[in-house]
Amino acid sequence: MNDVFDTDILKLLGTLYENDIFIWQEQGKLKYKSKEGKISKDILMQLKDMKLAIISFLQDCENNKFPMSPLQSAYLVGEANNCELGNTNAHYYIEYEISDIDVEKMQTVINELIFKHDVLRMIVLKEGENYILNNLPLYTLSTYQYIDCTSRKRVRNIWKNHVYKIENWPMFHFEVGKSDVRNDVLHISFDCLILDAWSAKKLIDELFQLYNGQKVDIPQFSFKEYMEKAAIYESKTEKKAEDYWKQELEKVSIPSIKTEIPIHEVTSPQFGRVEYIFTFEETKCLYERAKYYKLTPAATICTLFLKTLCEEYGNQSMTLDITLFNRLPLNAEVDKILGEFTNVGLVTFQKSDNICFLDEVIKIQRQFWKLVQYREYDGTKLLKNLAKGKVGKAVLPIVYTCMLDGCSCSEQPLFKEVYALSKTPQVMLDHHVRDDLGSLKLSFDYVTDLFREEDVEKILLAYVKRVKSAMTQIEWDCIVI
Question: InterPro entries in the record, alphabetically (predicted)?
């Protein structure tokens, strides 16, 4: 029994499921039933050899599984192939370069993080709950010979589009390409069911800190404990939030976006990325202008994004799905743990003639303050409300994901980020806004079947032009941008 890992049991359970064999434990006894009425000798032998370990695993799973967050559940529903822009998972992929990666050292650090953060040992159960595995083998860091761009792109194409299966571990992947003539490359892939964008950034920061010999605090609080407390947490603003959103839902304007083919014809969404990076001086200039008018960069940039989309696609108004990173104050160490803490909210822009840019941003800023005020409200309820009578439809397929941190560049200069791509079910365009690498970076992750790259680049350039105009215009209260 001690030689059986949880991964061995998961593999066997997967085989049983594929063969329509149902298994459960009842008062310490292993029970199983085949749909066809018989079980192969090979499977029977495995059940016999692993009997005690399977019983222990099933008992622990029954006693210690815990609820998913509303957004985790929404991701699972959206992954279904009968949903528009479904048949894919919420996933993030990234590459870093550095000279001569110490593979053994990197593998040790990864295993240290797996031990430190329970969410890295988590699986998602078929019934829609989470479970933390207890008995795992050491994670083995994959490697390959990075000979040329072809070998690197082969690994990239495998993992940037990877779909992690539920009830399988791990829900992440690390791989190193070793080269004799250029920098080595570190590939990182993970399912967003286990990590939101802020947690992913924290994980990567801790990975590089440990690799560089620095210490990282180990939280006593866990993601499992957080989710259990969150399930019984009572928001003091629930009623006010419901009243606010009831009014706001009446103002929602579904984007009218021209696509190459109808959304429902996309059977397996593939994503591409275009991006633009401003200089530190440009970024500082924009932030100072926003601060002067007591506005946040997040609301300012969102306004410019919405204005660009409305102009390019001829919309008078438009509503965006806004990503919120919402950790409830359930423990003093809540900021130290990793997990999926995302919530969603809505922001609507209405074009008006002869209105100055400052007033446009103020309107969006007020909506952002409401997002903060009612951040505890389950935003997936808003999406469900909008989707009534539209089963499987991608109702609000444009997302604004903002991770501004005041240009506080992470202290990992040796590792250089060189490629990244996200994908999300039922999303045609996810706009990422970052400044953690020292300056403002705008990225569009888009469904390639719906948009030509040159068209997305055209929109990005128009957007960048607007942002630069805001940087150089001194008086926002008397201009139209």
Answer: CAT-like_dom_sf (IPR023213), Condensation_dom (IPR001242), TubC_N (IPR041464), TubC_N_sf (IPR044894)
The parent domain of residue 435 ranges over: 234-410+424-478
Determine the residue type at 6.
D
- Count up the domains in the chain and report the number: 2
- Is 125 part of any domain? no
Residue 219 placed within a domain: no
The pTM of this model reads: 0.94
Question: Following CA atoms 67, 71, 76, 82 in sequence, which dihedral angle do they give, to the nearest 10 degrees?
Answer: 140
* Residue at a domain's end among 64, 80, 95: 64
Q: pLDDT tens across 335-393, in order?
A: 999 999 999 999 999 999 889 999 999 999 999 999 999 999 999 999 999 999 888 89
pLDDT digits (tens, 9 = 90+) for 173-214: 999 999 999 999 999 999 999 999 999 999 999 999 999 999
Q: What is the CATH number of the domain that holds 297?
A: 3.30.559.30
With respect to residue 293, please indicate whether it lies within any of the assigned structural domains: yes
Of 64, 80, 99, at which residue does a domain stop?
Answer: 64
